[in-house]
Amino acid sequence: MLGEQIGEETGKVTGFRVLDAAGPKVEVSFQSRGKILGSDYQGRASYWSQMQPGGFLYGEGQGLYMTKDGGTAVWKGQGTGKLKPGGGASYRGAIHFTNAQGNLATLAGMVGVFEHDTDANDNVVSKVWEWK
């Protein structure tokens, strides 16, 4: 069952690398700032994404949230998406919090569903809901 929204972030793409021109398959890195379960954090993440024969994107990624008072949370995820007219992409998928400590410790073992969007100017917006 889909639970409450637990997080939201905004950020900027910091890296883009073509992994395989046939496909194509790319790697994207981004930095973000956001709030999850009421705690402010800085985030770092990277994911690879590849165009699929049906015209959609499939990707897998991982990331880290860090709070000012030492809390951390690590996640891994996967999702599908599509290119947006005018630039950027829109993804939907799931993330699994594989490790969390400090004020983010309650995230350990939690699963979330996400919306992740980028635009033509490399801006990032993401939202996460708990999957109960």
Give an overview in words.
The chain is mostly beta strands and 132 residues long. Helices cover 0% and strands 73% of the residues. It is built from no helices and 8 strands. It has strands at 2-20, 25-36, 39-51, 57-66, 72-83, 89-101, 111-118, 123-131. An 8-stranded antiparallel barrel has the order 1-2-3-4-5-6-7-8. The mean pLDDT is 97.
In summary, what is this structure?
With 132 residues, the protein is mainly beta.
SSE layout:
Blueprint: E1 2-20, E2 25-36, E3 39-51, E4 57-66, E5 72-83, E6 89-101, E7 111-118, E8 123-131
Antiparallel strand pairs: 1-2, 1-8, 2-3, 3-4, 4-5, 5-6, 6-7, 7-8
Low-confidence stretches: none
- Number of alpha- plus pi-helical segments: 0
Helix fraction, binned, reads under 10%
User: What is the rounded Rg?
Assistant: 15 Å
Structural class: mainly beta
Salient structural properties:
132 residues, mainly beta, 8-stranded antiparallel beta barrel, 0% helix, 73% strand, globular
